[in-house]
Design goal:
The chain is built from 14 helices and 11 strands. By secondary structure, the chain is an alpha/beta fold. The strands form 2 sheets. It has an 8-stranded parallel β-sheet with strand order 1-9-8-6-5-4-3-2. Bound molecules: flavin mononucleotide. The site of flavin mononucleotide has 28 residues, from strand 4, strand 7 and strand 9.
Length: about 375
């Protein structure tokens, strides 16, 4: 039925559609809806405490017995960043003054924690069918424990080098994350955003380089994108931004509105919200301080100094300091419940594939008829 069923069979799902893990934006409601619809729902845990993640997983397992993906960041926690943090706070000082905030007050440290033993215990307890990582992979001991839990392991690559590295470490499938993608870039072998590759160029090169199945991500929001991903050799797609417009997405009204109005050329890769490159809709902080600043402390520390500015401006209904994560294809979003979106995407993709098949067969018939005419002319001469 699908051009390639390798991933469907590997994960035990019905549709080759993965709802991208989206830290802070998609929780149990979204995961259950997508998995119940036949896709793979993903719970991102980067912004959750162990207790919060446990509650989400309990809800998910209570509401669906379908396969799910649980996702973690696996960055190194930065050290010795005090001077950088001071510089960063100084860079933002004028905004604090303008908004009548005390820039000298202690800033709560950011809560994006990397995958650790406690989260790993949770994986063993809930045994998700798939565990995915962003920013590479955790250390070998943790990875071995995840594998023992029976989970298929995947991670994002933004280049052929990263994809090969992940395959060498034993990943079961790789997400090829193109430059169009919303949210944080999964890049981990380079920090040079200027050389990052678009989905169209990245996917076939990763497919050619690997033996394991490749999942395309970045700028895919409708059946045209999914058909294209298959044509490039991918076996499934991972879709983020399109799911942000679903009622299940837990994003602020400000973010929802910004996505609704977003044009194709209104996002940028920026490091000003967290310290790592991520794609979001351009707003005041990105415009005035970024998009890439060399003053930011390492991920995730930059977020702490931005948090009070964000909180106060959001109270006033402003998106000036809010990370409005979005990929380049937000314009293609439709407001549908997540299950309906998943099913529609699948149905429309199959319809398009059937149409292309008919076109190809008609083309073949036309070619055969033309050849027959030429042949008969030759014979009659
Ligand atoms: C709001 C948002 C949050 C994201 N958070 C995560 C995350 O926690 N973990 C992860 O692996 N990827 C995360 N991503 C990246 C997605 O996995 C995926 O690469 C991206 O959404 C695909 O591009 P698209 O948004 O154009 O569909 C996030 C993306 C968005 C839009």
């Amino acid at each position: 039925m699908w051009p390639n069923e390798r991933l469907i069979n590997l994960f035990g799902i019905e549709l080759p559609i993965i709802q991208a893990p989206m830290a802070g934006s998609a929780f149990s409601d979204m995961v259950v809806a997508v998995s119940e619809a036949g896709g793979l729902g993903s719970l991102a845990c980067a912004l959750l405490s162990v207790d919060q993640a446990r509650r989400e997983l309990e809800t998910i397992r209570r509401k669906t017995s379908r396969p799910i993906n649980v996702n973690f960041f696996c960055h190194q926690l930065p050290r010795g960043q005090d001077a950088r943090e001071m510089k960063w706070r100084r860079r933002l000082e004028a905004y604090y003054v303008q908004m009548e905030l005390d820039h000298k007050s202690a800033v709560l440290s950011s809560n994006r924690a990397p995958f650790d033993d406690k989260m790993c215990d949770l994986v063993l307890e809930f045994q998700p069918e798939v565990v995915s990582f962003h920013f590479g992979l955790p250390d070998k001991a943790l990875l071995t424990r995840v594998r023992r839990a029976g989970a298929k392991i995947i991670s994002s690559a933004t280049s052929v080098d990263e994809a090969r590295w992940l395959e060498d470490q034993g990943c079961d499938a790789i997400v090829a994350q193109g430059y169009e993608a919303g949210g944080h870039r999964g890049m981990f072998l380079t920090d040079d955003v200027s050389t990052q590759v678009g989905t169209m160029a990245l996917v076939p090169q990763v497919v050619d380089a690997l033996k394991v199945p490749v999942i395309a991500a970045g700028g895919i929001a409708d059946a045209r994108g999914i058909v294209a991903a298959f044509a490039l050799g991918a076996v499934a797609v991972q879709i983020g931004t399109a799911y942000l417009q679903c009622p299940e997405a837990q994003i602020s009204p400000i973010h929802r509105q910004a996505l609704k109005n977003a044009k194709d050329n209104e996002t940028a890769i920026t490091n000003v919200f967290t310290g790592r490159p991520a794609r979001g809709i351009v707003n005041r902080l990105i415009r005035e301080v970024g998009p890439m600043s060399n003053l930011v402390p390492e991920f995730p520390l930059a977020a702490a100094a931005v948090a009070p500015l964000r909180a106060k401006s959001e109270l006033a209904g402003s998106a000036d300091f809010t990370p409005l994560w979005s990929g380049q294809a937000a314009r293609l979003n439709r407001e549908l419940p997540a299950a309906e979106l998943t099913k529609q995407l699948a149905e429309e993709t199959l319809e398009k594939l059937r149409f292309l098949e008919v076109m190809a067969s008609q083309d073949l018939l036309a070619q055969a008829a033309a050849l027959a005419t030429v042949g008969s002319r030759r014979v009659s001469r």
